[in-house]
Amino acid sequence: MGESPAIQTENLTKIYAGSGRLTHFAAFRKIPGGLIAPPRPPVHALEGLDLRVERGEIFGFLGPNGAGKTTMIRLLLDLIRPTRGKAAVLGLDAQRDAVALHRRVGFLPSELSLWRNQRADRILRYVASVRGDVPTLLAEANRLAERLALDTTRKVRTYSSGNRRKLGLVIAMMHKPELLILDEPSSGLDPLMQQTFYQLLREARAEGRTVFLSSHILSEVQTICDRVGILRDGILRAVESVEALTHVEFRRIRIRAREEIPAGCLENVAGVSEVRLQGRTAELQLHGDFDPLLRALSNFYIEDVRQHDPSLEEIFLAYYGDGSAVEQ
Amino acid sequence: MALPVFRETLRRSVASTIYWGLAFAALALLTVVMLPGAEMLQTFADFMASMPLVVIRAMGVGEDLEFLATAEGFIAVGFFSKMLIFFVAYPLVMGTSISAGEEENGSLEVLLSLPLPRWRVIVEKYAAYLVTMTAILLILYGGILLGVFLAGVALDLAVIRAAVFNLFPSMCFIMGVTTLVGAYVSQARYVLGIVATYIIVSFLLDVVGDMGIGTVAENLSYISFFRYGDSVAVMQHGLEWSSVVAFLVAGVALMLLSTRVFDLRDIRAD
Ligand SMILES: Nc1ncnc2c1ncn2[C@@H]1O[C@H](COP(=O)(O)OP(=O)(O)OP(=O)(O)O)[C@@H](O)[C@H]1O
Ligand SMILES: [Mg+2]
Fold first, then answer.
1. How far, in Å, CA of A164 to CA of A178, rounded?
2. How many structural domains does chain B have?
3. What's the pLDDT tens digit per position in A153-200?
4. Domain with A236 in it
5. Are residues A165 and A278 in the same domain?
6. How close is the Cα of A232 to the center of ligand 2, in Å?
7. Residue A318 domain flag
8. What is the pLDDT of residues A135-146, one digit of tens each?
9. Do B114 and A130 touch (CB under 8 A)?
10. Same-domain check for residues A140 and A178
11. Which pTM was predicted?
12. Candidate from A20, A77, A113 with C-beta closest to B270
């Protein structure tokens, strides 16, 4: 058992049936006024996913909106059933052994909604009572809540969205699960809380536990993850260590000089491409180190240099733009 | 067994159980307190007798107009019989919250990510609502007792108890129906719509069937659950145990069937 990977999927595929269940009955399709939506075509949300996540790593699942990240996570938790293929989690079948598996897994959904009229501590007690050892679980829950600065004596309805996510994190982590599955965990947390949260994840890793998180924020994945899988249109495009991804990463740079930058002076500078000159400002794309660029500009008085991280889209274009083979 | 969902459902239902119970009890109390005196009752029965047979039957009294002249008869017709349409609102609302309500607001995702098989969510909640339903009927009976005390009327309480008890199987059945629809449909408003339609159609079929005007209407009224939970007959002739058992068994069977339906499908996926 110790050898089994944290997550292993084989040809995991999910096609959402187009129409809602009610439209299976012809009578309901005829109800006018759009009360029940007309039939929709099926959605191929996930296609033949083969993924292996090792124990003890923090794995980031990166992809733009609608890529299929949530679908994958809901399959792992047996909330939805695969159209084809299968998933094994901690050596157990995600569907057949769901209950045994859920004992060892913590989950934070992306659109977390809890019982709004309940107090947070009552909800924690409820979750603990389902999980079993109530006093131990509540002690850990209180410790986590304290670290996340969460007041659990209030009703969920009065929480800000950040507080709600904190409560979700406490629920996901209170039983110290071997595997944490987090769907866009840090959305809604302020920078300070994000740091605390990352710290919690690192501690979990230090204890040999595994974290699987989805995100569309590259910088977050870079900060915290060991490896990332890149998902797009339901297809796993690549699995890379974060270093490798950072290596191909490039920056977009905007430079403002005191005098006009002459055309041509940034040509043939190592790593610089897509230069756009406009009087005293230059916008360019930089691969690799800064040094060649700085040397090329050494004769100018530079007033300002700004850099922004490329969007995931830009990384994709740079990384896979040439249509090169997808590595696994 | 610890039954966490059962206990949590009970805990959260304390307030709503009291509200529903008090609402029903207040209705019952009003009916008892405003009970006409014996002469008025006789006048009322005579007046009814002068009505066309169809109208008399539509009220669900049967042919026995003398029963209507008694206090029990008045309560049977005025409170227990057609009021069933209000009593089943409770299992309708609670049955909807068993799976569809939680699925729609999203909390089901968290619940099912815990080590809890899906069927237990349904079974434990259904069981919890059987308990709250019992509590509501007890409060209702309390309302009648209070009315009897306040108005000083002489009522055969054994008959009243039978009528109150007779509400339970119908409610259990409607909760089973709602649970099944909820397990399949997953959106609370559709569940409410579908089951409320069934209840109203049942009510109308029962009224039409009682009139006994045509064989078609009478035959159709067999699919109305009102037909089998008729409190008037119970108050006249005692509990119809076959109906009681059939409703209870059907309610539980529908609930068990919903666990199957619920187990087979995607959560929050349409
Ligand atoms: N219940 C559903 N029924 C039909 N289509 C769905 C359903 N859920 C998701 N989809 C579709 O499946 C695709 C993948 O959705 P999914 O929610 O997995 O994406 P995601 O990567 O989590 O996106 P986001 O970053 O926005 O959360 C999308 O095209 C979405 O529209
Ligand atoms: Mg998502």
1. 23
2. 1
3. 999 999 998 899 999 999 999 999 999 999 998 887 888 888 999 999
4. 7-30+43-245
5. no
6. 12
7. no
8. 999 999 999 999
9. yes
10. yes
11. 0.84
12. A20
